[in-house]
Amino acid sequence: MSKNKRILMIVTSHGQIAAGNATGLWFEEFAAPFALFRKQGYAVTVASVKGGAAPIDPRSMDVYTATPDNEAAKAALADTRPLSSKLAAADYDAVFFPGGHGTMFDLPNNPDVQRLVSECLTNNKVLAAVCHGPACFVGARMKDGSSPIKGRRITAFTDAEERAVELDKHMPFLLESTLRDLGARFNPAENFSSNVVVDGRLVTGQNPASSAAAARAVIELLEE
Prior knowledge:
224 residues, alpha/beta, Rossmann fold, two-stranded antiparallel sheet, 7 helices, 29% helix, globular
C-alpha cells in the first residue's frame, strides 16, 4: 500500500435550495471515501468553495451513527480550506468531488473548480465525482475550449432519480441532461443502485450508494 499518496476532496459551500429548504453536502458521499482513503494511508486535504465549515444536508444525517470514521469526517468538514487558497492539482494524486444538491449551485460556475478539473485531466491525474459531484464538469473547459467530458463515459445522479426525490423543479438544471448535452456518454443504472463508471483515470459514481465503490476505484487506479 502506498502511504505517500495525496487526495484533495472538494465539497460544496451552498447550504440552501430555497428559504426553509436546507441542503449542502450529502454526508455519506464524503464520509465513506474519506474513511477508505485514510485507511489506505493517504493524506487527505478537504476544501470547499468558500472554506470553513461545509454545510451538510440534514436529510443525509437521518441514519447517522457516531462511529470513529464518521466523527473524523465531521471534524474534517468543520474546517475546510477555501478553493481560492492556491490549491493546485499538481500537488495531489487524485481530486474527488462528493455530491449533495448544494453542488448544483456553486460548482458549475466556480473558476477554481473549472481550473482544477482542467488541470487534472491535462496532467493525467485521477479525477473522481459522485452523485451531484459531476456538476464540477458543467462549466469546465479544456484549453481548446471543449468540454472535459465530451466523448467520455460517465455517470451521475440521473434525471429519474431527481424526479423520484421530487427536487427536479428546484434545481438550476438537470444534471444528466446537461452532461449529455455536453457530449458525455452517459451510463445510468437503476434508480439508487450502486453504479461506478471508470474511463481511463476519470471515475464517476451515480448516487450515494456508489460512494464507497467510487473511492475503491480511485484507490485501484492509484495503486496500479
